[in-house]
Amino acid sequence: MIQWQYYPKSDTAPLIAATVISAFQEANDKIDSSEHKLDSNRVLEAITPHLEAAGFQVETGKKAADKIHVPVLFGLNGQVDKSFDADAYHLESGFVLEVEAGRGVTNNQFLKDLFQACMMNGVNHLGIALRNDYRGANDFDKVLRFFDTMYASSRLHLPLQGILVIGY
Prior knowledge:
Elements (H helix, E strand, L loop, with lengths): L2 E5 L7 H12 L1 H4 L8 H14 L3 E2 L9 E7 L5 E7 L1 E3 L4 E5 L3 H4 L2 H11 L5 E6 L8 H15 L8 E6 L1
Parallel strand pairs: 6-7, 7-8
Antiparallel strand pairs: 1-8, 2-5, 3-4, 5-6
Helix pairs in contact: 1-3
């Protein structure tokens, strides 16, 4: 079952978020973590046709040429000095999507995703997809508790308009 939460909770999710949610819903039978133990690349593969149809650039492999590089810093003559990789990127809306599996919470990968999205030039929205079921635990719920706390405390101000958390 696909679950999702958009932050801040006081805002409605933008249309591009609905597109991402729909991609996961369309692939639910193939990616449901209560039924399948897929790595993040296989989950991304299953949603790729839906994302590409919506105008996303999607990572196609592990080689440098297959990755989606989103600029962070620019140097001499406007050349990109630093970039971070994203699983999927929608340039027009500034939406970056990261799909996680086992490392999502265990290795705090969702925090690295958050940090990198905050540094990326032109990125307004971050989507993080996590398993509902990972070794008997619910990574989706753990990340929601983190973002609930972060937004409730109001001590940290992000340069993002919003964050979409998806449980698959």
